[in-house]
Amino acid sequence: MGAFTMDADWLVFDPSPSKPVFHLPDGAVDAHCHVFGPGDEFPYAPERKYTPCDAGKAQLFALRDHLGFSRNVVVQATCHGSDNRAMVDALRHADGRARGVATVRRDVSTNELDELHDAGVRGVRFNFVRRLVDPKPDAYYFDIIEKIAPLGWHVVLYFEASDLRERWDFFNAIESDVVVDHMGRPDVTKSVDGPDFALYLRLLDENPRVWTKVTCPERLTKVGPPHYEDVVPFAKRVVESYPDRVLWGTDWPHPNLKKAMPDDGLLVDFIPRIAVTPELQSKLLVENPTRLYWGEGQ
Ligand code: 0GY
User: Fold this and answer.
1) What pairing do the DSSP bridges indicate for beta strands 98-102 and 121-127?
2) Left if phi > 0, otherwise alpha if psi is -120 to 50, otherwise beta: which for 91?
3) Is 238 helix (H, G, I), strand (E, B) or coil?
4) What does the mean pLDDT of the chain come to?
5) Which domains does the chain possess?
6) Under a CB-based contact definition with an 8 Å cutoff, are residues 260 and 224 in contact?
7) Which residues contact 25 (CB under 8 A, 6 or more apart)?
8) 8 Å CB contact between 271 and 281
9) Are 99 and 118 in contact (CB under 8 A)?
10) Ligand 1 atom closest to residue 257's alpha carbon, by position in its atom list
11) DSSP state of 79
12) I need a surface site. Which of 56, 81, 111, 230 has the fewest CB within 10 A?
């Protein structure tokens, strides 16, 4: 028995996903995925809001190869708080094929930031989703933004529609590149032309430095797999409107899904529904993430 027991309602990732029908282009990046523990080696944070199953780097790299990705961007998961050791360990064992996004505290030191940069971290994540974290006042995040500026890092934002209204001025005031997770979590039962999604599109329209991940059909959908039809109009609109500022990722190992675990092969098969030409696919999967995470000065 390990030191941690996963939550009773925790769903474990699919151990044998299908082989996607869609053939990923060479150099494709899974730009949103996580590692969990293993807890015995990299303990989960005391302040965490969930205890997941272990999902370590070897399993992540096996999935990368199975699906046909070349590289990963490993995003610090909230179950590890600001202890980035599991994520950094994954980066250090990836032979240059992984970059990371960290969670840091306001009092993070320059030395700690330099070490993270050396391991391959290129951004910090600010999470506003209350079931995952206790969000802080804007000033807390501004202090971190000031500290990471010399490193040229970007800020990843995870928020829901109500947070976008509440934090609008703050989000618009960030001067670095910004990446929004999961299209700001639209309610896909509403119209793609409705006011909530319009506000998120306005953020992208008014801020050329804001990027977005067109990720998580499995999290947003009401109709489910295999085609996730209800998510398509939202993601397709974004890919076609901002082709140079979109990223895609699996979100493996899919934290906090409560109904069913997705088949990661089917998630890859979702890509050509939202990026319908080889040009759009190449930007989404190769050019954009490579520029942001492995580009000049990175
Ligand atoms: C995601 C989504 C979730 C969780 C986390 O760091 C996390 O704990 O990101 C979620 O539960 O919505 O982006 O993976």
Assistant:
1) parallel
2) alpha
3) helix
4) 97
5) 29-294 (3.20.20.140)
6) yes
7) 278, 281, 282, 285, 286
8) yes
9) no
10) 11
11) G
12) 111
The first and second tokens of residue 150, run together, are 């010399």
C-beta of residue 45 within 8 angstroms of C-beta of residue 80: yes
- 103 Cα distance to chain centroid: 12
CA dist., res. 202 & res. 185, Å (int): 15
Answer yes or no: 251 catalytic: yes
Asked whether the beta carbons of 149 and 123 are under 8 A apart, the reply is no
**What single letter denotes the amino acid at residue 97?**
R
Pocket test for ligand 1, best of 49, 157, 158 (most atoms within 8 A of CB): 158
Choose between 68 and 162: higher pLDDT.
68
Nearest of 83, 104, 100, 101 to residue 41 by alpha carbon: 83
HEC sequence for 148-213:
HHHHCCEEEEECCHHHHHHCHHHHHHCCCCEEEHHHHCCCCCCCCCCHHHHHHHHHHHHCCCEEEE
Which of 134, 82, 89 has the alpha carbon at shortest distance from 108? Answer: 82
Q: 227: how many CB neighbours lie within 10 A of its CB?
A: 15
Which of 53, 72, 129, 160 to probe ligand 1 with, by most ligand atoms within 8 A of CB? 129
Give tens-digit pLDDT for 96-128. 999 999 999 999 999 999 999 999 999 999 999
Residue 183 near ligand 1, beta carbon < 6 Å = no
Q: Which residues contact 34 (CB under 8 A, 6 or more apart)?
A: 55, 74, 75, 76, 77, 87, 251, 252, 253, 255
For 5-62, the pLDDT digits (tens) are 999 999 999 999 999 999 999 999 999 999 999 999 999 999 999 999 999 999 999 9
Instruction: Provide CB contacts within 8 A for 255, sequence distance 6+.
Output: 34, 36, 50, 52, 77, 79
Query: What is the Cα 88 distance to its own chain's centre?
Result: 16
Token pair for 275:
């990026």
d(CA 75, CA 88): 10
Cβ atoms within 10 Å, residue 22:
16
